[in-house]
Amino acid sequence: MPTFPTSTVGMKPRWQFFFTKKIIPEIDELFGLVDKLRLRERVAELGSEFQCFIHTPGPDGAARTIEHLRPTLDDVVTIPRELIEMTGAHRGHPIEWRTEADRISEIVSTDEAWPVYGPPQMLWFQVKSNWDDYTNTGTLEPWWRIGNLKKDSTADVIRRYLNDDCLGLETNLPGSPRELALSYGDPKSLRIYDSNGDLSSRHLADHCQHLWKDRRRQPFSNGLAWNPESHCWHPPV
To answer: Where are the domains of the chain?
Structure first.
């Protein structure tokens, strides 16, 4: 547990819990360690207030593999009231855990189109160990790949990003959360999400995964063609 090494060198630890079915049997014992380890007092001695909060996992990227562990509204009563209050204080507003069914009804009530993933405040590029390149606009799933730094020039990688010619960017801009919810949402689901944006990101990933399986035949609005060698979309020759 890194709490003690950080506090002994003057760093202020904080605890973050991910609310899944798996943590429910342990949450009382884990949260009880806050008092047992005197974390409030230890952080107060460092001139600050101990922060502890809980949230459901964002349902994109690798976290999509644990969607089956997502809690339902009935599971909320298992979370200590004090932890919920501390989470609200950390966020600056009360927790708004709502079911997928409830959020879908709100999402489909508008035809407004907007990107599920907005432009990041600061753009940066992520390079995997195999030199595949991605940006922080989306995830590290294959449909967000914009090139490979061993095989593609930097100019080509930048061009693909600027022209939205990878499947993730192409599908995201412009986006229609309503259409995604109608196609991939479960209007009867009682699983809870922190925000409409979280749920829409899952719908977008489901949509991209569906298109990815059929990527060699799937046409796109901007006329790009799939190149099996670069694993990217390119203007047709």
So the answer is: 3-95, 125-234
